[in-house]
């Protein structure tokens, strides 16, 4: 089906086709590709394009919509008015267009719709039913899923619902599930580009088969001289290898990725262990009875002297984790993260360690300034080949602190109904395709096991720290 679609909507000579990949269905190189080569080119008249803020200028968006209608047939005037108007935001307008195509399209746009994931295959949070969200084993994700679903229900009732929505004459969505489907498609498959100074949002057939990678080997852009949206190779790509792009979501935690795309990144650098400096932590750290980091900082800013030391020595922690390395314990987090962007499990484990380090930030003391040596004391000690000695009382406090934080990890893990091992066994028995578990349950297990792996990594790091204390 993909080849049929590409034969009509993409320019001849493409070097990729849809196929099975380790990430699910994706784009696979059909030939050896050299760096800089065009992998796929889709003419602007063959994409769905809406201008994000029509009031700031919409000449490009109107031109593309005009060309689209000349090539693919006229759209109902009510829909056209809605697409070029500024009543709905870009997201809602693209969803309306998709819903209309789903009900009415023929030819290549029928193929396009048929190639899109079906409801039962969609794993974005919004598509989880209330009875399924418990599988995520995360109160945060559960409440986020409920919120997403209630927001989309509001949109459905107000706009798309065939019985009472403002656009009911277009007969867009018979039930809430239709609207959820369209919203998930727009969320997870649209591109944003600025063309002729106009920011537009696009659904681009064929190009929207590209999966996301932390270290992408392809990029996308609108190429004005070609009047086309293109995927290009950032490096040589072997025949049969997957071509991946970056979704530009490098700042998103796994919660954000589940919300927008329905997948998680193993070892997501933006995830944090939700350590708390609650009562137990505050007592152990002798921080004057403050219950959380924010109030500690506020109290410190207010000059309350009882704000004693953070609990963990940063240079010692780095050393215990094998992350110090350089003279004076200097550590470049950005460089360490950049060096761990691969697909391997070792890279994912490394990223979990870095995420742990960042989670511990509120508790660290003697943090070395970026790119420089640690504290003067640490620098002197490093020159002498050893960390500065700690008094027995200091050692005692460090041990108590790490024990308290380890306890928090263990408590969080114990509060989840299944273990890493059970989850991994479930995934292994499923064989990769979600055939037995179903797509959403499989993704829920993949998501919760990733949260547990981070907690395990944090627990192990703190235990290594405690063991290295002397
Ligand atoms: C733009 S589409 C990519 C094509 C999609 N795989 C398909 O079969 O239609 C985005 C969706 O692909 C999947 N995806 C993309 N990147 C992924 C990744 N790195 N890991 C797992 N799933 C991914 C997610 O389901 C996401 O919502």
Automatic annotation (TrEMBL):
SUPFAM superfamilies: RuBisCo LSMT C-terminal, substrate-binding domain, SET domain. GO terms for molecular function: protein-lysine N-methyltransferase activity. Residues 12-248 form the SET domain. The keyword S-adenosyl-L-methionine applies. One of its GO terms (biological process) is methylation. It holds the Pfam family Rubis-subs-bind. Keywords: Methyltransferase, S-adenosyl-L-methionine, Transferase. PANTHER family: SET DOMAIN-CONTAINING PROTEIN, UNCHARACTERIZED PUTATIVE METHYLTRANSFERASE. This is SET domain-containing protein.
């Amino acid at each position: 089906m993909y080849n049929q679609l590409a034969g009509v909507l993409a320019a001849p000579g493409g070097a990729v086709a849809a196929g099975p990949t380790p990430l699910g269905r994706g784009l696979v190189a059909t030939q050896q590709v050299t760096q800089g080569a065009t992998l796929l080119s889709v003419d602007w008249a063959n994409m769905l394009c809406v201008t994000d803020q029509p009031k700031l200028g919409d000449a490009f968006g109107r031109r593309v919509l005009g060309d689209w209608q000349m090539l693919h047939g006229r759209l109902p005037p009510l829909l056209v008015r809605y697409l070029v108007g500024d009543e709905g935001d870009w997201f809602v307008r693209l969803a309306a267009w998709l819903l209309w195509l789903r009900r009415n399209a023929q030819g290549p746009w029928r193929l396009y719709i048929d190639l899109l994931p079906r409801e039962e295959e969609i794993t974005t949070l919004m598509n989880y039913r209330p009875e399924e969200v418990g599988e995520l084993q995360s109160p945060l994700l559960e409440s986020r899923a409920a919120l997403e679903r209630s927001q989309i229900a509001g949109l459905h009732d107000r706009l798309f619902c065939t019985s009472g929505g403002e656009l009911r004459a277009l007969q867009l969505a018979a039930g809430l599930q239709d609207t959820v489907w369209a919203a998930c498609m727009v969320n997870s498959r649209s591109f944003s580009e600025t063309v002729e100074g106009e920011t537009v949002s696009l659904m681009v057939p064929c190009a929207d088969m590209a999966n996301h990678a932390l270290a992408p080997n392809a990029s996308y852009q609108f190429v004005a001289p070609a009047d086309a949206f293109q995927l290009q190779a950032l490096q040589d790509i072997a025949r049969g290898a997957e071509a991946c792009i970056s979704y530009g979501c490098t700042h998103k935690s796994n919660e954000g990725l589940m919300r927008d795309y329905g997948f998680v990144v193993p070892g997501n650098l933006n995830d944090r262990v939700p350590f708390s400096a609650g009562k137990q932590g505050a007592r152990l750290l002798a921080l004057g009875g403050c219950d959380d980091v924010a109030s500690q900082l506020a109290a410190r800013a207010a000059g309350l002297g009882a704000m004693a030391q953070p609990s963990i020595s940063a240079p010692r922690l780095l050393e215990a984790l094998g992350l110090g390395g350089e003279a004076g314990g200097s550590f470049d987090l950005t460089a360490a993260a950049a060096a761990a962007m691969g697909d391997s499990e070792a890279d994912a484990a490394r990223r979990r360690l870095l995420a742990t380090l960042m989670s511990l930030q509120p508790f660290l003391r003697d943090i070395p300034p970026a790119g420089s040596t640690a504290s003067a004391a640490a620098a002197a000690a490093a020159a002498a080949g050893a960390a500065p000695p700690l008094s027995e009382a200091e050692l005692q406090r460090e041990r108590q602190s790490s024990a308290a934080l380890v306890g928090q990890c263990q408590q969080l893990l114990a509060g989840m109904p299944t273990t890493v091992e059970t989850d991994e066994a479930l995934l292994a028995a499923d064989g990769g395709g979600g055939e037995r578990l179903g797509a959403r349950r499989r993704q829920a297990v993949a998501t919760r096991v990733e949260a547990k792996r981070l907690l395990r990594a944090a627990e192990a790091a703190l235990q290594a720290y405690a063991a290295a204390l002397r």
